[in-house]
Amino acid sequence: MAERSRASSAHISPSAHYTGYVWYRHQLADPAFVTRFGRWAHGLLRPITWGARVGFGLDLDSLLLQRHLLIDARLTQAIEHEGVEQVVEIACGLSPRGRRFTARYPQLRYLEADLPQMAARKRLLLQGQGWLNGQHQVKNVDILAAQGTGSLASLFADLDPTRPVLVITEGLVNYFELAVIEGFWSRLAAQLQRFPQATYLTELYPDLQEHPRYRQLRWGVELVGRLTRGHYPLHYRDAETIAAGFARCGFAHTEVLDPGQQAAALGLPVLRQASLVRVIEARV
């Protein structure tokens, strides 16, 4: 079972290329983060995303930006007002966040981590631009590994356990069945117990059956699954079931944030339909 699940995690990379191009298009990333595959995939899907935006009010770019910018805003709050100087971004893909935040906050210790092949690509990208140093590094991790060099324990071993830490996963959770991802969250919560203050930021796409575009949402979810060569399950029904799920995994406090309600503050247009994504801020 573990081997089968671990092998399935390789399908995440295609979407990393797509989102990498989205960040660049919206001036959140340097040109170095753009790949030919990401540019091609974005162009290929443009007629579909245009139709969804015009016909159903479902804007994929805005959805991605909502989660990304709200995570950025909560990270900024943690650094400037909560004393966070250690950040771990798991499943970092082609996220430009590490580059942007280490440039803005030179004191920040920022670890990016992903499966070996993606981590190697990210490491070469950042090294080629002269952006890696002792404070900003890229490491290998397999979120399904219980022990060993790719495990969470290995990833967190180099951090200072006397200082606060903040962990981010973006674009990861909904690629796995609930039991698998809750196993990861439980291992993560156990690691975070070592720190005096620990925060976890991620995003979820709840199964919003009351959403006026639920049928189109389900269609879009299945399309994403086919394009990224994997299943794309939706977890939980609402904020209460999300909080209960995180509590089962060892998180003492969970806040469920709707980025659609903060669109104006994030510099984004207010969409016609309610947001489909939730940003989760969980603390042990």
Structural description of this entry:
This protein is α/β, with parallel strands linked by helices and 284 residues long. It has one domain (2-283): Rossmann fold (3-Layer(aba) Sandwich). The protein has 10 helices and 7 strands. Strands 3-2-1-4-5-7-6 form a 7-stranded mixed sheet, sandwiched between helices. Helix 8 links the parallel strand 4 and strand 5. Helix 2 crosses helix 3 (36-56). It is globular and about 50 Å long.
CATH architecture descriptor text: 3-Layer(aba) Sandwich
Order of helices and strands, N to C? HHHHEHEHEHEHEHHEE
Q: Calculate the terminal CA-CA distance, rounded to whole Å.
A: 28 Å
Instruction: Give the C-level CATH assignment.
Output: Alpha Beta
* Beta-strand segment tally: 7
Arithmetic mean pLDDT: 86
Largest sheet: number of strands, sense, barrel closure: 7 strands, mixed
Query: How many H/I helices?
Result: 10
The residue fraction in helices comes out at 40-55%
Share in β-strands: 5-15%
Question: Which structural class fits the helix and strand makeup?
Answer: alpha/beta
Q: Rg, please? A: 18 Å
Instruction: Please name the fourth-level CATH homologous superfamily.
Output: Vaccinia Virus protein VP39
Provide the low-confidence segments as ranges. 1-12
Q: What sort of overall outline do the alpha carbons produce when their principal axes are compared?
A: globular
Question: If you consult CATH, what is the topology?
Answer: Rossmann fold
Q: Count the domains.
A: 1
The largest sheet has its strands arranged as 3-2-1-4-5-7-6
